[in-house]
Amino acid sequence: MRQIFGSDGRMLMVAMDHTAFLQDPVDGLVNYGKTISDSVAAGADAFLSPIGSAQRYDEEFGRSSVVVSVDTRAPFGAEAVARALAIGADGIKAMVYPFANEDWVNQSAALAAQASAVGLPYLAEPVPGGFSAADMRTPEIIAAGARVAAETGADMIKTFYTGDAKSMRKVVDYAGVPVIILGGHAKDTLEEFYGPIWDAINHAGVVGVAVGTNIWSSKNPGGVVRGLNAILHEGATVEQAVSAAK
Prior knowledge:
Blueprint: E1 11-15, H1 27-30, H2 32-42, E2 46-49, H3 51-56, H4 58-61, E3 65-69, H5 80-86, E4 91-96, H6 102-117, E5 122-126, H7 139-151, E6 156-159, H8 165-175, E7 179-182, H9 190-203, E8 208-211, H10 213-216, H11 221-234, H12 238-245
Parallel strand pairs: 1-2, 1-8, 2-3, 3-4, 4-5, 5-6, 6-7, 7-8
Helix pairs in contact: 2-11, 7-8, 8-9, 9-11, 9-12, 11-12
């Protein structure tokens, strides 16, 4: 866990596992190695990557941590931890769909047990009801989903920001393990993007972010990461972060 988080206990993770499911190429992911290198130089602590890219871009990742994103379903699920260890990953991440199908929860528990047995940190990403269940994005259900994922044995949780610091604090407190928030859809401005992250970090007890689209869809991925680094590790305001990103 200390390898994945910064010395201050916070984590700036660049999520680049979208290449495992996106239907169309995106410039920032086509230029995968350059996006990694720019993000490392700008202060990224960790990356989220499919196993293929985690192997292919080992040199570009440098000393930054790599958490591999895997599918828990058979037949690969049983091999996920061994494969992650074989390529030298620092952690493993999987989706969990609480309140949709108990098989996903059971698969998460199995992965957590396998990872724990070899000391590999497990990051769970709960999506209550599945991606199509938009009605299950209330703060209460997000908090419940985070706790279900934590109860499978996850060491940390990646989940949605609830929209305000007060309700997000309930998610953090209920989860009982470190919580990081995902970056979500591309925002129109850096102010719009950085604002909720600043609130989550400074008022809700969130320990980090896992940002994908808002980094690799930008014309200046390194700049976006610099702004995030300023918020997470340097105590910057939103305005200072925007300035750092330019």
